[in-house]
Amino acid sequence: MYLLERISNDLASKIALFLNFDKENEEVLAYGAFNLIHTLWSVFLITVFGVLFSSLPIILIIALTVAVLRKFSGGAHATSPNRCAVISVIVFGTLSLIIKYGAIYPSILSIILYQIISFIFTYIILYKYCPVDTPNKPIRKQELRKKFRKTSFIILFLLFSVTVLLWIGFLKTHASFILISIISICTGMLWQSITLTIIGHFIVVKLDILLQNTSIMKGGRNI
């Protein structure tokens, strides 16, 4: 993703020059700018997919759920931010279409079971693996690992609490979108928990290799 790297580096260079920062602070600025631009780029791609396939609210809920839980639990990574963004679109987009066309919620009871199963499964995976770091971003401090682990469980319970509140809203309004929102949150939890496992790593690696073989996906800094 050479274009975004050049943009972030140029932006950091101009800000550092204006603020009279040294090289070290300039590199920190470049890193922050790159992460911000990459996040905006990912959101843009996800939004485009959602608009094109009329699944925007669903894919955004899935992406947000994964993002907040992934922040502290970690998980499988692609070998470049650009491929990471594209893989996110592929996975989140596929899941959003499955939800949109109702393949996994034929009845109220099935949604409740799906909610319970997704929460229990995610809890077990977090308990067993969380947090999962990467060779490029190892978590060396034990205190930090404990903090990330504790925060991951807090976020999990908050997400589950949100689904419970949504059920209360559904009982009052009977709005179908509330059910879709519950399923989207549960699906996001499930996918994020899967990325902590060998299966999740296998899926991401295979998609990463597939994208590496396409000319537009080659290059970019590793993450």
Strand segment count: 0
Count of alpha and pi helical runs: 8
Distance between the termini: 12 Å
Residues in β-strands, percent: under 5%
Classify the helix fraction into a percent range.
over 70%
Order of helices and strands: HHHHHHHH
Query: What does the radius of gyration come to?
Result: 19 Å
Alpha-beta content class = mainly alpha
Task: Give the overall silhouette.
Answer: globular
Q: What can be said about the biggest beta sheet?
A: none
Averaged pLDDT: 86
Q: Would you identify the regions where 5 or more consecutive residues have pLDDT less than 50? A: none
Précis, in short:
With 223 residues, this protein is mainly α. It contains eight helices and no strands. It has a domain at 55-80 and 106-202.
List the helices and strands and how they pair.
Elements: H1 2-19, H2 23-52, H3 56-73, H4 81-100, H5 108-129, H6 142-173, H7 176-194, H8 198-212
Overview of the structural elements:
The chain is mostly helical and 223 residues long. It has a domain at 55-80 and 106-202. Helices cover 78% and strands 0% of the residues. The protein has eight helices and no strands. The chain has helices spanning 2-19, 23-52, 56-73, 81-100, 108-129, 142-173, 176-194, 198-212. The chain is globular, with a radius of gyration of 19 Å. 35% of the residues are buried. The mean pLDDT is 86.
Main features:
223 residues, globular, single chain, mainly alpha, 8 helices
